[in-house]
């Protein structure tokens, strides 16, 4: 194709796109020598975590009792290296110079956090075991734990959440949110990394589920596709913008079931053992043991 | 970065993660020499199937009448080889030693099933043709069959379903479910491979659709995004867990339309030609020709 | 595995699949020498656009004020080349011989459109800036513009939409729809490329959102996950098929908020500043400033 | 690492390297829209040729009598497409505007040459068959034709030569030389694409062999590693530079053997059936049937 | 480009190339289900061997005393799997049905040989250690063992040789020769896998070295670039073809040095401690301690 | 395949290979957090250098006068980053703690050297221009400068040498030698990075050429394939090992030609304008203008 006919346009557009005023808001000014957050590397990190948490299912390794230490050893080493770098990228992204006086200081912090995260992996595996059991027990179509681990999007979304939540608790900026959004894109399940979730948690099908940042979920809770645990309204500051950081999402007590497409909104409490029917909009507290349903459809 | 400062932690965590008690539930113990289920290879298999069913649209091949046999030939050969291996992986995963006395026996079974699957491809193409026609006719925005094949997520989800359903009927474990979940992740449409679906089936937009394992869908049915054909409740066994394998999803008769976000739950029947409005929750039979709608919203 | 036992089946299936009658509807007959639409290349094109619109965030480049022209220059050049080819592929796909008498003519048109698209990039960046600001201001959980750009699926979906919409306005067939569906698969947000959308547009969470081809959205509109701006019914032609091209989706005026899973259907108007509650089904005009909610759930 | 300390140097070096005077001799000025010669694509082309000439040995295909047409069909199609493009790249590189008035004209020529080349493949296979037989018969260590095809560098170098020679005869610039140099790098055997070589030609070991552009080699000739068939001296033009295009390399008659590291230089003739010993320097005609050896070493 | 003009030629050439008579000599008839020899996999195998023999230098692993078992464990597992498959490919290639009655039998043999090979790796590392020491001591330009391992082509060629020689001794067909030729292509050093080579062996620079199948080399031998240890003449059988398998290459005793481009030909013996000058042609025994040189050049 | 039969062997071999005594000499003990020398990255570095020195020929970029700054800018930035890292890897490899007290110190040194190297690129391009001219003028078969740059192995080998020599002069350990060996493997030309080479240098064909570390080559020198500029003998130290660092390779004055396979050995001088014939062994000074030839072969 004769491309050069329009080369003037190309050149002048490049100039225009490079102008500082045009780009300053949307450009990530990179400090040379610092790593930057990378979705590709984070995907590798998640693969490594999954291969450590569920050996043999993820990571394409021929794991057995004899050789498992080899595989877990190599993958832990690699995770440590990549995670240290991405945590540093997160710290650099925020670049809180009140906290870190030098790149070297952030580097030390990043390595320390990565080690602490790795230290928590056995604990993460323990709680994920309860999630696998809950998914298996809760779904008549599930044929084995193995099928649940291999195939259920909920396990992938919850794994990413528990990893992201742990990193967030260790003080890592940005990276936890990126990890959550990777699961969101893969499964359609959107859990904010700050959400607190108990053991034996399961989500069936999952597409469209939204769990907000300040939500608190007890043990043995089951939710279905399309469920929103969201905010109802946001108190505004003097500029008319929402005030950040206020508790604004529901508290779900133990043993609650929420059916598909229900929306639970605001800092309300769904009491222990309650059942929320599908396709409804709940903005007030629900007592323990209650069953809330949609009003009858008309024909 | 100075990573070695925390190397003690790494080593002890590897040891802890490798301990049999910790890992036994979540570890796929691999038998050396057997293939294992691989999402990457299954994606290749789906690509090959799509390139055989819709030549020229998928598989980046310059197909025309003169050379079509070359391309279909090479792709069929490759499909045969990869599919045999993944079917074997599925058989090994279940490892039903009451049925197969040796790896060699499973190997022979796998090859036979793969050949039978390939034999059914022309039939699969025929029914998928009806799905393409239905999608084109049903959407005023569709400009050609080609656009439908190239762009509509429903075609991808239904193709995967028809492939997975065929493999499930041929007795392949696990693999069909993995294929369904791949479509679920790609399109947000979650169809259990065991669901029975007639011809001229179409799904508009599709995100959030859920079709359960025992659902039965007639011919010429159209459903919209967010529709659930789900279970209402599960009879429990003596341990309080759901009994597996009971018919528990709806029967949708011919010529039914179900609008967005409707939930049809339980072993009920939606009669021929009925219309189900959006955002509603249906748990009882709907007679043929009926129109069911949400109760009026209040202002 | 002993694969040759069933080689007869393979050969006869290849023959059957290659027969013209069987394949003619589903086969893209490729004209040798013409490019064909490629999802892989379109993904590269989207990556390049994102790297030009949000330098440093996408494209893994170490951009700073000193070197920005290098990176934007190289990426613009590459975009120009790839986009010209894919636009040509789109033109060839439709192959409107009443409009173009030769491949050479389509080639010239493709290059011209690609240049015009590139010329519009600074304008696209300007309006996307308003979307980023809207997402940040509207979400108490957002911590910086950077986090919004990096992590929010809405930004990806809206970017793809604005790119696709621009290409559609420039007369490119097929390609815009493919770009929309790529965003749909990545984010669960399905915006038809023909939809008209004003500035400061934001979508929270987004999974399950559907915006139809003839929808018109004003400035400063916010919608939540699962919202449908759809058609209600389609006037049928004499063959019982929907008539294509009729305005059939809603008009949303400035400053409207629509909560999760609401369905707004048909060519109705939601008046300026109105609020639509979640999980409801709206098929009639809503006056400016009104608040529409679901009828109360029963316990 | 703190890279920005020296960013001034980077910027000023980029400017200096981009100055026209500095770069004009060493820069390939690319005409936008034209393909350029690509080693990567040529390597793909050579792989395709090898897979067509020696099916099953190269190209990783599971070829057998039943499916061979599929594989050869697909690979020929692909070869045709890639070769047309690279031939065009060669024509553009020379850009002889006295011969071609437009890019379109070169395009037509390129496609025509590619088709003619493909037409000659069966003939190329025939003569390469004689080379394989010669290599097998001539080496006591060779265990089968298959081993010769798989392992012997001579077969790779001679294949590349026969392909390059054919392209050169069809008038393709540059590309033949690139193909020769690819074999040179892979095997250490450097045969100029213009050299004329008869049937049943074999080279043992081969590293360091050089065969010049105007060399003529008869049938059934065998040479060893390190043999040079070179030029002795070059007549100079008035500027003191060698005159191009004069016959200046040896003529080797049928049934000659040349042992390792011998140098045969100038337009001399080695008579039929002659034997040239190793490590010698021959600059005069050698009569048919003669044996030429190095003078005795001294201890 | 308008490629279809010549599509007739393509089709008829494919037919011609697929004809059995044309292809039978040069086609590897593949038995479906059997693996075939693969240069790509063998390159992976060599990489794995190198990473096991010289940990940290090859294989890009961050090896240290703490984690070495992880890396060696994973790489040994992978080597075992890939090598078993390629040994089977070699056995299938020869397909000696007098020796193996079934594919299953060859499979068992392949696994057994792979395990035996792995068992010999510590021994291979021991002798390669002597080669590294010899290269370091023999070259004034060498600055450390590390530099020798990283950079010296001799180490790569000798590693490949010792691996190939071991596989050949274990009865593997074809594969050893392919491994030798891979080193030949990489380094220009051509050592037949059957050659017997003692410890502390080194080759300086190496390009053009040829060591024949029946050569026997003692300990502490050093040779330079371009040296041939070749055959002089081949006894012919009744058909005029060389008789295979006869000892026909030199015996080099301990502590011999052979300078660049010397050719030592035939089953002669170079006595202990002898020195062979460069560029000479030796076809008779050389006594221990002797120095053989080229006759004086004339000016 | 049933691989687990021999798993005992695998496990015990891994243990044996990991033992410190066995591995200590051949293992590169990696300090966590430091980069290590990587052939893959060095190959990328060489590609970047070639794309900067010969824009348009290497690096697959569509360079023209309008856009050249974009491409050179991006490639220089990338070169700077990768080279800094590999220089640091070289410094860590040697790990001269008498010179650098900390990793941070080596890091700063690495960045500084990388910037200095980049600063010298325009000078490197100037001298490489003379080499291209010399190759073109010296070979009657060369048809354009472009062909020389694209195809001649000498240009690749000399480019690598001039790059490696510059890095060596800037004090970089190991990396220069690796770069030389990469050219050696690609072209069969082995030039030690410490060798000093004047302008207008050319090598014809090149396979087997060896140029030693202390060789000094004047301007306008031409050498042919198989030429060795080597050492004759090495003074030994008290332990019988060669003393490192002594001048031991030839000095070649301006305007000398050396024909194929000649060996020039020891610290001798080949006088200005001398011609050295092929296949000879020269160990004594040759006066200016002299012609040295092999003694006559006998028939």
TrEMBL record, chains A, B, C, D, E, F:
Keywords: Acyltransferase, Amino-acid biosynthesis, Transferase
CDD domains (alphabetical): LbH_SAT
NCBIfam families referenced in this protein's UniProt entry, alphabetically: EPS_EpsC
InterPro entries per record: LbH_SAT, Ser_AcTrfase_N_sf, Serine_acetyltransferase, Trimer_LpxA-like_sf
Species of the source: Coprobacter secundus subsp. similis
SUPFAM superfamilies: Trimeric LpxA-like enzymes
Keyword flag Acyltransferase: yes
The protein's name: Serine acetyltransferase
GO molecular function: acyltransferase activity
Biological processes per GO annotation: amino acid biosynthetic process
């Amino acid at each position: 194709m004769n491309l050069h006919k329009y080369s003037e346009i190309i050149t002048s557009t490049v100039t225009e796109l490079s102008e500082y005023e045009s780009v300053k808001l949307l450009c990530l000014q990179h400090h040379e020598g610092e790593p930057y957050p990378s979705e590709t590397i984070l995907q590798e990190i998640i693969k490594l975590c999954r291969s450590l948490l569920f050996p043999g299912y993820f990571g394409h390794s021929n794991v057995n009792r004899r050789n498992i230490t080899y595989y877990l050893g190599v993958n832990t080493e690699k995770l440590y290296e990549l995670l240290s770098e991405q945590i540093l990228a997160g710290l650099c992204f925020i670049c809180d110079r009140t906290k870190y006086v030098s790149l070297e200081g952030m580097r030390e912090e990043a390595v320390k956090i990565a080690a602490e995260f790795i230290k928590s992996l056995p604990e993460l595996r323990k709680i994920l075991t309860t999630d696998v059991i809950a998914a298996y027990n809760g779904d008549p179509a599930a044929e084995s734990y193995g099928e649940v681990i291999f195939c259920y999007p909920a396990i992938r979304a919850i794994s990413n959440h528990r990893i992201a939540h742990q990193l967030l608790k260790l003080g890592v900026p940005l990276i936890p949110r990126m990890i959550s959004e990777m699961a969101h894109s893969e499964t359609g399940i959107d859990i904010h990394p700050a959400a607190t979730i108990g053991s034996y948690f399961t989500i069936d099908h999952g597409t469209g589920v939204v769990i907000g940042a300040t939500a608190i979920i007890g043990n043995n809770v089951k939710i279905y596709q399309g469920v929103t645990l969201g905010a109802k309204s946001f108190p505004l500051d003097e500029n008319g913008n929402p005030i950040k950081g206020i508790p604004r999402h529901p508290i779900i007590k133990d043993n609650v079931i929420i059916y598909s497409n229900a929306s639970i909104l605001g800092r309300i409490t769904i009491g222990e053992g309650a059942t929320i029917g599908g396709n409804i909009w709940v903005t007030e507290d629900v007592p323990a043991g209650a069953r809330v349903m949609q009003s009858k459809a008309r024909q």
